[in-house]
Amino acid sequence: MRPVLVAVAFALSASAVHAAGLPNGVVYSANEGDGSISEINLTTGDVRTAQIAVLPHNVQISPDGKTLLAVGTSVVKAGGHGTHGGEGKTSDNGTADSHSGIDAGLLILNAGQLDQVPETLPAGSHPSHIVTSSDGRYAYITNADTDRVSVVDIQGKKIIAEVATGGYPHGLRLSPDGRELYVANVSDNSVSVIDTESLKEAARISLGKAPVQVAFTPDGKHVYVSLRDEDSVAIIDTSSRKAVKNLSVGRNPIQLYAAAGGSKMYVANQGSDNNPDNTVSVIDTKTQTVIDTVVTGKGAHGVVASSDGGFVFITNTKDNTVSAIDTSTQDVVATYSVGPNPNGITYRSIP
Fold first, then answer.
1. Cα 343 from chain centroid?
2. Where is the signal peptide, in residue numbers (predicted)?
3. How many Å is the Cα radius of gyration of the chain?
4. Could you report the per-residue pLDDT of 200-226, keeping only the tens digit for each?
5. Lowest mean pLDDT: which of 73-82, 233-242, 297-306, 318-327?
6. Cα–Cα distance for residue pair 327/329, rounded to 1 Å
7. How far is CA 271 from CA 88, 244, 274, 278, 296, in A?
8. Side-chain half-sphere exposure of 217, counting CA atoms within 13 A
9. Angle at Cα 150 formed by Cα 144 and Cα 151, nearest 5°?
10. Beta bridge mates, 324
């Protein structure tokens, strides 16, 4: 794909509440409502929002922290990401899924200067989520309407493989050792396990209703999977590749992420469009029990943790905010106003 020239305008936005003691880092939210990315400076509390060339559903910082990867559909042609799998009880922005088969892209931006013209690479059809290989050379992107994961060689600037998955692949994460990708298949009620060396599906694990996202524990022994349509989280033993437990959480859980040294798993409960939830369920990964519920903002959706695991950040799609949770107290210690309909979120540490 040819590079796309993008007019980028920054807007400063003060946080509603900001607390000292947050790590020296930056949080980025993918604002699907208007095709922008918000950049939160945790040291100062300042928020800058930049318009980009796609309606981003997901963002991911590169392993070296130098580039920000965003996936989405053309601002001109697309109406939004739509629902996670069509039939579910919740959607991202209440619009119909309108971008099957239209032009889509992967943007590579300078993480420190989002106003630079980004590079645009192919991302397949209906790109939803993105993660990178451990060395940052490859990007793995779910394509929901073709039931594939696209593998993009970032250096070579091309798609090198299309890996078949279950129906409507959405969230995905790379194992800590980099050998496997776990992919949540929303309409197939399963998780695909992809071998990153052979780039083939090695296994498919049957689960409950509408798995949306997955999250590894740092030791790689377990994968937690949000089951949107049954308000629960399944726990997979990666050695046996079988679900070993199911935990009830809030309504319509979407994203989840390990923090606090891997001792806790944070699950964002989005709820429905008409009745959004505003909670985050906290799971003790040792006892595999829900130990707390944190109130954030309406439509809690995206989850990421700081590098030290001391804080978790949540996008609230209906409130257009990002909440910061102290993982030692489970208190919301800061709230930031960002662009409309924030979905995906990622964290960059600043040395």
1. 7
2. 1-19
3. 18
4. 999 999 999 999 999 999 999 999 999
5. 73-82
6. 6
7. 11, 25, 8, 8, 13
8. 18
9. 155
10. 313, 334
Name the token pair of 328. Answer: 């030692």
Give the tokens for residue 303.
């989850």
DSSP 291: E
In angstroms, the CA 35 to CA 17 distance is 25
Domain 10-93+101-349 CATH (choose: 3.40.50.800, 2.60.40.3080, 3.10.310.30, 2.130.10.10): 2.130.10.10
* In the chain, where the domains are located: 10-93+101-349
> Could you report the per-residue pLDDT of 260-284, keeping only the tens digit for each?
999 999 999 999 999 999 999 999 9
pTM confidence score: 0.91
Angle of CA points 10, 12, 18, to nearest 5°: 140
Q: What is the mean pLDDT of the chain?
A: 89
Reduced to 3 states, what is the DSSP secondary structure of residue 262? helix
247 token code pair? 């935990």
Q: How far apart are CA 130 and CA 140, in angstroms?
A: 6
User: Whole-angstrom Cα distance, residue 25 to residue 11?
Assistant: 19
**DSSP of 119-164, one letter per residue?**
EEE---SSEEEEEE-TTSSEEEEEETTTTEEEEEETTTTEEEEEEE
Helix (H, G, I), strand (E, B) or coil at 8: coil
Joined tokens for residue 39: 């950049």
The residue with tokens 């998955």 is 165
Output the pLDDT for position 99: 35
**Vertex 294: Cα angle to 293 and 297 (nearest 5):** 130
Residue 206 CB neighbours (<10 A): 12
Task: Report the b/e string of 67-89 with b at 16+ CB within 10 A.
Answer: bbbbbbbbbeebebbbbbbbebb
| Residue 188: both structure tokens together | 């197939």
